[in-house]
Amino acid sequence: MLSFTLNDHPVQCKSPAPETSALTLLRTTLGQCGTKEGCASGDCGACTITITSPEAPGRYKSVNACILPAHQLAGCHVTTVEGLAKETQLHPVQQAMVEHHASQCGFCTPGIVMSLYALYENRQEVDMVDDSHLDHRIEQALSGNLCRCTGYRPIRDAARAVMTTPSGPRPAQDKAPVPPAVSTARDYLLPTSLSDLHACLARHPDAPLVAGGTDLMVEANARLRTFDTLIDLTRLPELKQIMPLQEGWYIGGGVTFEALLPLAEKHYPALAELLYRLGSRQIREQATVGGNIANASPIGDTPPIWLALNAELILDGLSGERRLPLDEFFTGYRTTVLGAGNYIKALILPSLARHQALWVWKLSKRRDDDISAVLMAASATVTGDRLDHVRIAFGGMAATPARAPALEQVLEGHRLTAARLAMARQALAEEFTPLDDVRASSTYRRIAAGNLIERLYWHLNAVPGHKELTHA
Amino acid sequence: MSDQTLGAGPKRIDGRLKVTGQATYTADHQLDNKAHAYGVFSTISRGRITGLALEVARNMPGVIEIFHHGNFPALHHTPSSMAGGNKVEETRLPFEDERIYYDGQFVALVVAERFDQARAAAQAVTVRYEEETPRANLEQGLTAHGTREGKGNHSRGNAKQAFESGTHRMEATYTTPVETHNPMEMHATLAHWPNGRLQVFESSQGVVQQKGAMAKIFNLAPHKVEVISTFIGSGFGSKLWMWPHAVAAAAASREIGRPVELVVPRSQMFTTTGHRPETKQTLKLATDEQGRLVALSHHSISNTSCTDQYVETCGSVTKSLYSCDNVSVDHRTTQVNRGTPTSMRAPGAAPGLFALESAVDEMALAAGIDPLTFRLDQFADRDESQDLPFSSNHIRETAERAAERFGWHQRNPKIKSMREGREIIGYGMAACNWEALKRPCDAHVALRADGTVYASCATQDIGTGTYTIVAQTLVELTGVPFERIEVELGDTSYPKGPISGGSWTTATTLPAIAEATRHAIMELKTRAVRSGGPFDGVDVASLNFENGVLSHNGKQMSFAEVLSSMKLANAEGDAHTEGADTSKYSYRSFGTHFVEVRWDPLLANLRVARVVSAIDVGRVMNEKTARNQVEGAIVMGLGMAMFEHTEYDPRTARVVNNNYAEYLVPVHADQPEIDVILLDYPDTAFNEFGARGIGEIGITGLAAAVANAVYHATGIRVRDLPITKERLMAGA
């Protein structure tokens, strides 16, 4: 049995297969076809819905239903495009979309409406101090919605209009009581405490673990993978904690990137800039810190940053709790030391020391909603012009996210002068043989990585009047 | 003119349905007892099937039937004639034999109770192949097969000789990659056979053509087929002609005696539903001493499939855009192992103008003339290829107004000369051009006793706003307000309408709607003056109809009252209008793009910051929908310029980036500042509304304008699309 609330109505349905997506459940089982499928891989946003989870009842998360495991709806308040208008009264977002001709063929429209609905309903979060800030929030809200017809301008106009026009009070959403988050499925396990989780792991040591599901569900949809049993990590409060520590921050493995953002904005601005461009809003609402590390993709956006900051991991599970530097975690292409029946409990992220800087630069073909070709994260203390404690890591340059020790050594204890830059480029060229794939050629990656070092050079030797770009 | 009539731009009639999720697309239809189909797609690109292992799949839960070349019912080929109303692009039927011609070809079709069951069983089918070496790209095709004659060639004067004797010359080869339409809605078919008739819900840009093709393929009388496409998640050309999945679904439905739904997965939107083919284009231009064009030669080769001939007519615009006595335009094809190509937004012109307008830029620079001046001096005043005047041509005004708005005259022509911070700014421009076409069309209009006006036509609204402008036309001609208009489109049970393509829907459909409306009004008057009617005995010619009211000598009655008084349900009008007379004029639309790019050499980071375009499409029927079309086309043009590229493995001819994660299209953040100027000069020689259509012109020339701006910023002449960071870095 799977129960949740859909557009204010309680829903109870038979437990679907573990890899069933929320989209399939909505469209096929429940016959709610307003939500569209455009890609089944979380890239286009046509299937965007909002969910409000029991632990944060006032917050609307916009997510891609196509890569959301249906079981994760358990106990949530789910809103789809069919649920916004009250009788004949359109929601202000819908009204603005009509007014501004923001719909052409209309197929992406339900998803765009829902992304803007989340932005609108969470608007107390949006600090509208100035226009550029609002534009930024709109851009973020729409970063995961493709439209092939309009060229986007009318959509942005609609968003601006609805976010800047004060609207009268709307009839309060009469929220039906949300049924308890119980899932009785035997093949999709939703433990709610660590002891539960450990019991699940002991019973099913080889079962894949699901956090955001943003990778695993693509496997199910695109490669038609099926699973006997899945163990879900999203209902474990312990994994969602963010706590200050003496040496930095304890970040639970199940913290989503969207949940990490406030901390990043405050303490690690370069990380925040990267998070704005990680996947899309919908992906960031689902994808987790632990998931991005555990899947060990060579082009995962965050591992190089954690490497540069000398982060550590707390692992737990059948092998017991242990702590190890991230440096020792990756063993090869998509392999790690984690082992079956274990999970990433937390990331221990050191605070930035006095004079310590962090630079994160991501190169991708397209600015948003794209995978890195090359990502460089560099950290060092800067005293005068001298660089110390240099740690530089790259994504996209090797089979795993990887540090560049030879490069670090060239820079360690030195000023980054033009001569040193040449040495650094040389060291980097010898250090890596990057991948050659559809995202970028090996040559491009090698040259581009070198240019990122040069960018650091220009950054440190800034010429007055040269505007620093905030994005690549 | 009120806000609700033509030109002013009322809101879209279907906006509400779309923002509430109530607009019903093909896969949203619910039919009782519906079964779901999922394809097994070829994983080789050339060879034959030697065996299919079906046992495992057959025994999986919910599986009803598995179709393949061994058990698929025998069907017929359609003659594939557009005039005959039965055109398809790929004439081979699905499962016709064991041959494999391309990656992603249907090799089996699993039908099951549920979608997930069909998909799981499809995965469990194993296919054995005997593989042959495929031709994976244009170069491999040329080596293996050489070329074939295309169509649409043209020659005047002696381009070869004039080129040899020219003062300034340029010769270069340009290439454009395969692009995939990737409309947001995937192709889908829902077919069933109520009472021996075939009814098909399809995401289609051409229901009439699909009906004709289905009738031929299934050997049915035409009236026994109905094709319905009420809402379409766009198509950009890929849904003009029916593809094999539709035949597969219809046949499966007939065999199992249940409705069958088949949605083409995104990955196979890259293989079996058409693509814009790869092109290789050689341009040779020469001028005299003063910089006058004396020779213009545009020879192109594009890929076709191994089953059908599709020609990308890259030189179609080259024939008539510039004034030149010696012109040679030639199109050839070569066969590769890909599905059959098809029209994609502005076929021919989009890749063709990338090459032509890049070459013209190169020619202008070689002759030492400003690219704008060069073009202004040489735009043709009449269509020299047909020796006909243009019906209406304001291309110079588009160039001058857009240049002014853009600030072209502040441009420092020197390469890399304009900087802001670390960014180098480049300015580029290009002309855009598209033919204006008008086809035969039928329409039906009824003035109804309840005071509403109804129109129907079997054309489609693919998102461009056809529902809205048909309604506007009715408002204008009857005076009945927008809220009391009902428009039905996208069903072959309505009068025959055109395919939604070629930018001709507006020009074709509105005259038929208008004519039908006039017939309905005449019918109303004729009834009203008959014996017993409210205007009994009045001369029809002296009866006035305005704002929905009939009047004569001070007596006034609304048409609703007139009809009610006679117990009539309605007064109807049907009309048939003909295509444009092409013997007196050449009908084309014109425009000019100006583009600013910003280039950060350190990061090889390129972005388009600003686009100013002026467009001359005759009368602008609805300012909002028209602007939408141009802006959308410009952004798609940016995709063409910078991102879009369907990549094939050169060893296997299989598509590598068959998803939205790796086939990149522009996102919100890529949207530049766009300023569109719509000229709005009615072209009354073309049709009574003076409108030529606007869906395609915006994408033409845009990629060249970007390439020209990139050259200005970087000194690198990119002749191969897309303009990637790699290409710029390699050339730097």
In summary, what is this structure?
The complex is a heterodimer of chains A (472) and B (732). Chain A is an alpha+beta fold and 472 residues long.
List the helices and strands and how they pair.
The complex is a heterodimer of chains A (472) and B (732).
Chain A: E1 2-6, E2 9-13, H1 22-29, E3 48-52, E4 61-64, E5 77-79, H2 92-99, H3 109-121, H4 131-141, H5 153-164, E6 188-189, H6 194-203, E7 209-210, H7 216-222, E8 230-232, E9 242-244, E10 248-252, H8 257-267, H9 269-276, H10 281-286, H11 289-294, H12 303-308, E11 312-317, E12 322-325, E13 330-332, E14 335-336, E15 342-350, E16 356-363, E17 374-383, E18 386-395, E19 402-403, H13 405-411, E20 414-415, H14 418-431, H15 442-460
Parallel strand pairs in A: 1-5, 6-8, 7-8
Antiparallel strand pairs in A: 1-2, 3-4, 3-5, 9-10, 10-15, 11-12, 11-15, 13-14, 16-17, 17-18, 18-19, 18-20
Helix pairs in contact in A: 2-5, 4-5, 8-9, 13-14, 14-15
Chain B: H1 15-19, E1 35-41, E2 47-53, H2 55-58, E3 63-68, E4 99-100, E5 106-112, H3 115-124, E6 126-131, H4 138-145, E7 148-149, E8 154-156, H5 159-165, E9 168-176, E10 188-192, E11 198-202, H6 207-217, E12 225-228, H7 244-256, E13 260-263, E14 279-287, E15 293-304, E16 327-335, H8 349-366, H9 371-378, E17 382-383, E18 388-389, H10 395-406, E19 418-420, E20 423-435, E21 441-448, E22 453-457, H11 466-478, E23 485-489, H12 505-529, E24 544-546, E25 549-552, E26 555-558, H13 559-565, E27 570-577, E28 588-600, E29 605-616, H14 623-642, E30 673-678, H15 702-714, H16 725-731
Parallel strand pairs in B: 1-13, 11-12, 15-16, 22-23, 29-30
Antiparallel strand pairs in B: 1-5, 2-4, 2-6, 3-5, 7-16, 8-16, 9-14, 10-11, 10-13, 14-15, 17-18, 19-20, 20-28, 21-22, 21-27, 24-25, 25-26, 28-29
Helix pairs in contact in B: 8-15, 11-12, 14-15
